[in-house]
Automatic annotation (TrEMBL), chains A, B:
It comes from Polynucleobacter antarcticus. It holds the Pfam family Zn_ribbon_Nudix. Its cofactor is Mg(2+). Keywords: Hydrolase. One of its GO terms (molecular function) is hydrolase activity. This is NUDIX hydrolase. Residues 36-159 form the Nudix hydrolase domain.
Length: 186, 186
């Protein structure tokens, strides 16, 4: 059972008269409580030829490695949120680059957005949500211990595009994008 | 006053112990009710050298012209949501292209995402949320009667990039992006 956040009456799931899909509608005041996907924003922090990863200190995927990322907050932009998460989780100051990947995770009701980002110095530290933070060269990436398919896919694309020479700043960056399926595992 | 959607008790706005910003927290069950920005997804539907616009039949900006767009729904991807809105508002079937613009509208707690899209035929019709729908050449765009700054900015970028020959399908498309300021008016 759900309750109305506006008047505390009970909620019924039904299709409103002027709508085509089921919504959470208050039985007393009639307010429709819409639900929408949330954005997870993060970076690919690059220092030299290395990428910065965080080992998660929280569920889900405790102990697995991730790019710094988290839920976008009210009042910030996607890019500012990605920079904030990079500071909070990895203690790293970055110069933000362009959007690099957009991954739809419909079954988790999320959209994951990763930005290219440059570290101006090799300064980083584990935030409260990280067990450790470290720079990895391509051949050292812990592919079997990555936390999420969106992180794995973004890193795969990144190393392919970097090898092709299209992430040098002299080329326009095309956003990589695809849908993540429920069955996908690391 | 707000109420907990889980147990109907009262809500207090405060910073939880393990957090750094104010949240809506239930006084009884302790549930934190997170609030996050919502995505508005739409298309730039192109037929020949023309772009399809809808005149809004609903608030806000009733009577003003917009690209077809609306709130992304649970269970769909950004691209699928943009195609759905194009069918619902403009009655147009499109072949979806790449992401073209990402505009942060922090004061409205929204992110606007527009995809390039091709109409395979000049078939369209006004949906319930549109007064009329029409194809416009660049010199006929009703610039003074556009509904939102994100639509105006996306159309401006589109015509600049098209004139520069970089939307032909032979070039990688770079996502155009910027933050919309509260003071911006059409």
């Amino acid at each position: 059972m759900k309750f109305c956040s506006h008047c505390a009456a009970s909620i019924t799931v039904k299709i409103p008269l002027d709508d085509s899909r089921e919504r959470h509608v208050c039985d007393a005041c009639g307010m429709v409580h819409y639900q929408n996907p949330r954005n997870v924003v993060g970076t690919i922090p690059v220092f030299g030829d290395q990428v910065l990863l965080c080992r998660r200190a929280i569920a889900p995927r405790h102990g697995y490695w991730t790019l710094p990322a988290g839920f976008m907050e009210l009042g910030e932009s996607t890019s500012a949120g990605a920079a904030r998460e990079t500071m909070e989780e990895a203690g790293a100051m970055v110069t933000m680059g362009p959007l690099y990947s957009l991954l739809n995770v419909a079954h988790a009701e999320q959209v994951h957005l990763f930005y290219l980002a440059s570290m101006t110095s090799p300064v980083f530290s584990a935030g409260e949500e990280s067990l450790e933070v470290a720079l990895f060269s391509e051949h050292d990436i812990p592919w079997q211990e990555l936390a999420f398919p969106t992180v794995k896919q973004t890193l795969e694309w990144f190393f392919i595009d970097r090898a092709a020479g299209i992430l040098t700043g002299n080329h326009p960056v095309t956003v990589r994008s695809r849908d993540i399926l429920p069955a996908e595992k690391i």
